[in-house]
Inverse folding.
């Protein structure tokens, strides 16, 4: 068995590209080998800022010989008159010649498309190294990435110039060339710790040879090394480091030989809000914050940085990084003190100079719309106990929610929007509920972010997102494919998640109509209001379907509560978001415990037959639907009596129990009577019995969409 090593040496690569490139190689290379009948015991990919590498172990030195079956022309085209004993046609002769096959070796086989001629051909396996020599360059040139550059004289694009190539089949150099770079067995050691060439004798020696040159090529090994060093350092002075996963991954691919270095800054900077300090450290300097072990919420005036330099110079490295963070924190303190010199409300007029969207006006105008929409949100939540004082707090939160966008701190650090508004609101003596709402109205910022907890934050978060959705949809800008520059998917998902998490019986159609009316009054709609409304219905339907599916609700049950192609039923679901979620989960539980299976057949049959009657889909008064005096068959009389005994305003559990009770009676009804009777009145009564059952069960789900 053989091993193959390919290393691509480059100028410093972006960490994000290294991570993505290794993912692509790990996925593509094994498939590529399999396509060429090359088996392997292990494919390992390695990456640092200066190199990408793949080590393939357990390779056979040659492809196995194989017998392949070749399909030729149809029997009728292969022989004159389609007679296998007859003369071969030009089509058959051409096939045999092109494949190097004798006519007598051809055989006939039936397929689903008729009889065809076939032949078997022995394929002699090629030398593995010859195949790898062809494949390896494509692995490099086939990498996808952002901001690729032409660095040579040809058309080859790569994020950074390629400086060396290593291509070894066991100990043999396989010649590969990219632009003017020829493969060799020479790699490069660490830029500082071993600034010279490294000879790699065999492919299997790669990891250890580079380790001796102070390069840990295995990202997992580097990451483990980083975490162990961080934890060892903080233990020395009773601290605990915060290690965000994104930051850990980034620094892992920014270094080749990591050294954790502890630095410090003046304690006076701890007077700054923690988000400011952490943003400076994590987002801008890629430092790991350190907290007190005794008080886990208390930041210490220390940080840990991961150096790619000489460990013996750690003191100098710490001092240099300390100077940088002090300067950044000094700027932050200046911004913080300057912003707090005036009240948060003072910044509101400046929002008139900040554009939200060219056709939708300034952020100040957006704030005015949010305040109006917030009132509609409150009105659209039937189960929301709210006082006049709550409404005042919500309005104040909406008014101040965007004020921090024009502060010096947020101009410098946009990622602190909302968070600085919280601190500035408290500094301005605003109520805590207002300050919390300002901070939380941006939540959730993504799939892993928490949801608002304060009522002010929830209502303003929904209002802000709704304003964006109606405004952008009103301009006719609807996301397609993966393109979503205004994050409208996230906006709609956030509204649904907040409503579900908070237990809000939010009437979305009512709310959308009210928000669209706000835009229509200001002549901001480029499309008819009806079109905007219809598009938003579809948009929210898709978001609800996606979230329910992610929560484990099976696709047909999602259709059953959302309405597959029934807009009226979709709107019924959207008119009470929390009920929509409850119904979906109740249905899934009913399927899981086999309750649904026991009632499925008769209820679905009734739902599908009911469409042939004239009963609308909303009537729930059996006396209106059916004339009891005309019922003569015992089976239909029994069904009527069972229907009349159903509770009029049932819970989901009562609905299911009622349907379970009716199911056997309904099954007997189908056995004993002909629904489509010749007498029009009899037929209509029986169809209306089924129509009522459909309507009653639709309070829980549209059973006609359920697939068993």
């Amino acid at each position: 068995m053989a091993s193959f090593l390919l290393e691509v040496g480059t100028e410093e690569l972006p960490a994000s590209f290294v991570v993505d490139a290794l993912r692509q190689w790990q996925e593509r290379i094994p498939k590529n080998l399999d396509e060429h009948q090359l088996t392997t015991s292990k494919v390992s990919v390695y990456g640092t800022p200066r190199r990408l590498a793949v080590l393939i172990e357990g390779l056979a030195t040659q492809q196995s010989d194989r017998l392949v079956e070749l399909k030729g022309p149809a029997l009728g085209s292969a022989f004159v008159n389609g007679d296998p004993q007859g003369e071969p046609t030009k089509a058959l002769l051409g096939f045999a010649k092109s494949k190097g096959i004798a006519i007598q070796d051809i055989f006939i086989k039936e397929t689903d498309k008729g009889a065809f001629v076939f032949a078997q051909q022995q394929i002699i396996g090629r030398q593995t190294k010859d195949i790898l020599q062809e494949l390896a360059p494509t692995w490099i040139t086939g990498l996808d990435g952002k901001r690729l550059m032409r660095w040579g004289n040809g058309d080859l694009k790569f994020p950074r110039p390629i400086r060396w190539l290593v291509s070894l089949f066991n100990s043999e150099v396989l010649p590969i060339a990219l632009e003017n770079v020829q493969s060799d067995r020479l790699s490069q050691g660490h830029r500082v710790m071993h600034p010279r060439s490294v000879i790699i004798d065999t492919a299997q020696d790669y990891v250890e040879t580079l380790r001796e040159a102070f390069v840990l090529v295995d990202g997992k090994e580097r990451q483990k090394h980083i975490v162990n060093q961080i934890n060892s350092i903080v233990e020395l002075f009773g601290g605990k480091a915060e290690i965000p996963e994104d930051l850990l991954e980034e620094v892992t691919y920014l270094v080749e030989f990591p050294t954790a270095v502890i630095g410090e800054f003046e304690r006076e900077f701890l007077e700054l809000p923690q988000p400011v300090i952490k943003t400076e450290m994590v987002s801008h300097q890629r430092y790991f914050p350190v907290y007190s072990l005794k008080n886990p919420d208390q930041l210490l005036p220390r940080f840990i940085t991961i150096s790619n330099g000489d460990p013996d110079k750690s003191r100098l490295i710490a001092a240099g990084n300390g100077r940088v963070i002090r300067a950044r924190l000094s700027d932050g303190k200046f911004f913080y003190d300057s912003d707090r010199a005036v009240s948060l409300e003072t910044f509101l007029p400046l929002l008139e100079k900040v554009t939200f969207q060219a056709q939708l006006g300034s952020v100040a105008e957006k704030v005015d719309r949010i305040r109006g929409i917030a009132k509609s949100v409150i009105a659209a939540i039937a189960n929301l106990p709210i006082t006049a004082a709550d409404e005042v707090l919500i309005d104040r939160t909406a008014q101040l929610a965007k004020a921090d966008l024009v502060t010096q701190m947020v101009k410098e650090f946009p990622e602190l929007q909302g968070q600085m508004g919280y601190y500035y609101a408290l500094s301005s003596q605003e109520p805590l509920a207002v300050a919390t709402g300002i901070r939380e109205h941006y939540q959730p910022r993504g799939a892993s972010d928490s949801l608002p907890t304060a009522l002010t934050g929830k209502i303003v978060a929904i209002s802000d997102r709704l304003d964006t959705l109606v405004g952008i949809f009103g301009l006719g800008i609807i996301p397609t494919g993966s393109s979503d520059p205004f994050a409208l998917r996230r906006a709609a998902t956030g509204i649904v998640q907040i409503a579900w998490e908070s237990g809000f019986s939010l009437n979305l159609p009512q709310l959308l109509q009210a928000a669209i009316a706000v835009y229509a009054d200001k002549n901001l709609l480029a499309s008819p209001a009806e079109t905007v409304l219809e598009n938003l219905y579809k948009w929210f339907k898709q978001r609800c379907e996606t979230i329910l599916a992610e929560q484990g609700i099976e696709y047909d049950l999602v259709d059953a509560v959302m309405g597959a192609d029934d807009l009226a039923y979709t709107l019924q679901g959207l008119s009470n978001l929390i009920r929509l979620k409850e119904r979906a989960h109740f249905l899934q539980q009913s399927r899981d415990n086999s309750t649904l299976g026991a009632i499925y057949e008769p209820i679905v049959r009734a739902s599908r037959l009911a469409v042939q009657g004239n009963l609308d889909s909303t009537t729930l008064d059996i006396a209106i639907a059916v004339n009891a005096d005309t019922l003569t068959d015992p089976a239909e009389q029994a069904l009527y009596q069972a229907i009349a005994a159903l509770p009029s305003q049932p819970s989901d559990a009562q609905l299911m129990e009622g349907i379970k009770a009716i199911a056997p009676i309904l099954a007997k009804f189908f056995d004993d009577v002909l629904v489509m009777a010749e007498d029009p009145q009899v037929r209509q009564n029986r169809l209306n019995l089924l129509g009522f059952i459909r309507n009653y069960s639709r309070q829980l789900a549209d059973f006609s969409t359920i697939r068993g």
Observations:
- The radius of gyration is 35 Å.
- The CA atoms of residues 25 and 318 lie 36 Å apart.
- The longest strand covers residues 114-123.
- The longest helix spans residues 314-340.
